[in-house]
Amino acid sequence: MATFEYQALTPAGRLMKGTVEAASGEQANEMLTEMQLRVNILEKAKVPRPRSRIGRNEFLLFNQQLASITKAGIPLERGLREVAADIESRSMRKLIVEFADDLQAGTSIEEALEKRQKFFPPLYSQIIKAGVKTGRLSEMLTSLNHHLEMSNQTRRIVFEAITYPLVVLGLAAVILTGVFTFVIPQIMVIFEDMGSQLPVLTKAIMAATDYVVPFWIGVGAIVAGLIVLTGALSSFPAGRRFKEYLYMRVPVLGRVYHRGLMCKLADAMGLLVGAGCDMPSCFRLSAGATGSEQVKTQCELVAAQIEQGQNIVEAGQLCSVIPPLFFYSMQLGYQRNELEDNLFSLSDMYSQQTRTQQSRLQALLLPVMLIIVGGIIGLAVTAVFLPLPKMIEGASGAIG
């Protein structure tokens, strides 16, 4: 059934506006005619844009408050209303109140969450259900807060690792553009009379000053093309997998990105194992929490093989993104009944590696950029000084 908006006249000539649900426009027109309305305008109603997920920081604050309330022994329905009263966001407050209303009306927590799953992180429904069933809701919410904080920290590290090179490149571009646009042309005016007697390097630098603007136009076109290409690749799974493949091949930066994914995967799996989730579901849900298409594909493969009876190490043999150490550590933890602890240890290890790689990137990038910028400016200075001996020689000859 579709919704149609109409404008029509009543038998008395009064204008009416409204909506009607029908399978087609013809059926809607017939329904209005049967109501003795003369239809002037009938068109399909625009579908309202669905609300997006709530913000990360907003959700983290909500979850922290809910964990504190449940720890105090307050019933979930009442606790949700208490949390909603302290939230500034109207959309978030409305969402929580509606959730509490459903619980008060007798709706199960699984059904209430299912209706609103698009507003919450992928793991939330599983964690809440496990916490309610085991009576460990406060503990599970606290563990979820740890996971969210770890995920935010990893995302921040990766973001800083990406933005730092861009900032350094931007500053270098400004410096070099200023030198070639304002400094070099003023100095080169002195050498114009020498013509063909100028050294090759000096001629090259003088020519380069004429192409600063076209160069940056070309760079801008390339950057715009890359942005459009990235957006196009992000619109379908195969494109996202290819984009991730390229990211991971970038020196140092690729390792930062990869370690960040492994940190989020291990932390999410530790959280789900603590919630009593079965192993195939752990892999599938945790992969969704990473947001990586490559990780999703490989975790789906691992989950399918575990369902066929293979152990964790055997199931992970064909994975290229998830390292063998990850599966070996999981297998040991499973055998020793320490899987949750092992996964959180893996998360901490990958988090530390991510920070180490970020520090390495920053430590390497600044000297490299200084050498490049200094080298270009050094060439420009050398080009300026190369003609001076001939000028001095010519001036001495003229005086003599």
Question: Overview of this structure, please?
Answer:
- Among the domains are: 2-44; 56-147, Type II secretion system (T2SS), domain F (Receptor-associated Protein); 253-356, Type II secretion system (T2SS), domain F (Receptor-associated Protein, Up-down Bundle).
- Helices cover 72% and strands 6% of the residues.
- It has 17 helices and 3 strands.
- It has a 3-stranded antiparallel beta sheet with strand order 2-1-3.
- α3 (76-85) packs antiparallel against α4 and α15 (324-335) runs antiparallel to α16 (339-385).
- The protein is extended, with a radius of gyration of 32 Å.
- The protein starts with a strand and ends with a helix.
How many individual β-strands? 3
CATH topology of one domain: Receptor-associated Protein
Based on helices, strands and strand pairing, what is the structural class? Answer: mainly alpha
Secondary structure: helix percent: over 70%
